[in-house]
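Section 3.1 - Work completed
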Amino acid sequence: MSGLVFRQLFDSTSSTYTYIIGCGVTRLAAIIDPVYEKVSRDVKMISELNLQLKYALNTHCHADHVTGTAALRTTTGCQTIISKASAAKADLFLNDNEKVKIGNLELEARSTPGHTDGCMTFVLHSHGMCFTGDALMIRACGRTDFQQGDARRLYHSVHSRVFSLPEEFSVYPAHDYQGRTQSSVREEKLYNPRLTKSEEEFATIMENLGLRYPAKIDVSVPWNMRCGPTVVEDKEILADIAANKPPAN
């Protein structure tokens, strides 16, 4: 991992992984999928690593936690990024195949819709890493029964945009609920119990998951469409999030 500063952080409430990617030469950094309640932790980690945060990115408009991107902008002066297709607010918007430069590092943004319209996978080709958000998870994938979910679209996204990467590339998802931290393209092509099926079988599986209504969707999506709260870990906002109270218009 020459030239790369990398940390994987975890929020136990939402089982969300947050990733810090830094250039070891220029000390510029990006953070992927930050959680609002963990902004102080993330800022402290970035400082301890002697990094300067340039970008805060979301893989998509999350429904299970409130993003920390706007609060990180307030604290660090970074720019926030999300896909244009998400229709959410940010400083910068990405289209398919566009690049994000972080010092000497470069992330490729690959459009991988299906969980939501705006899902993106960020690929760090130089170090064989892909950050797949909720499109591809470890032995699983994101649900397709809310927001703009489309099982067939997700199937094609993963097979064409993620499984087409070199098999040795590491897969870093936005969540895991069983304590696993990473996978690989090869492992998921061989062992993912959903995405190894045919498209028809996959669509049937996704239609019959029988999942509960997402606990935080009513507060998370309205906040995340506006890039999250700008104030760092405000007590009143934290209480509202805990109570599933969406932001005022």
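Second construct:
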Amino acid sequence: MVVRSENRSGHVKVHRTLGPDSRTLVLQGHVGFDSLPDQLVNKCVNLGFDMNILCVGETGIGKSTLMDCLFKANFDDTVHTHKSPGVEISQHIYNLKEGNVKLRLAIVDSVGYGDQINKENSFKPLVDYIDEQFENYLQEELKIKRDLITFHDSRIQVCLYFLVPTGHSIRSLDLMTMKALDKKCNIIPIIAKSDTVSKSELDTFKANIMAELNLTMLKSTLFLSTMRRFLRSTRK
């Protein structure tokens, strides 16, 4: 019920009162725009998170073992040989849950990468797969009735690139592939099986990697340099 009253100065005052059939809503907590971050967090937790990881490296270099250690799980792993005629893309989706947080993890593996005699076009299947995921998301956005909440966003968020611990420098195949993927997704270079080389050789290999990445002007170089400065500042 709304009651209007006008005083001598001409100002109108509006008084709102509850009707006989109304009910009073009791608040269970604080209501305000300062609670919006908590509401967004609760919404994200209820919907869950998606993570798409591309693992690039030779067969048997330790990609599956690292994924098992990162997420503390035993993922299904198929043993592959070095006789693959070309590079194939293998995607596996896992639904993980830790506490109240749900994660849909997609691990994309590059089967047969670097096993061919002619490695000139080894990076093309990887680039084509990433472009295909971008195209799928674009087509979903262009729909009149799109549903991006339930749509599985399969775009690659990060690429874990496994380097062979040669102890000297990055191979030309690695530089060519990283340069092709640099414009498509984030790249994190990883020295695989680093426990097989001595600490001095590992430090020299890291320095050579950073020097060659700086020459190629890859975006991952900026990320690695920023992380190194951050770690140095936290140690002081």
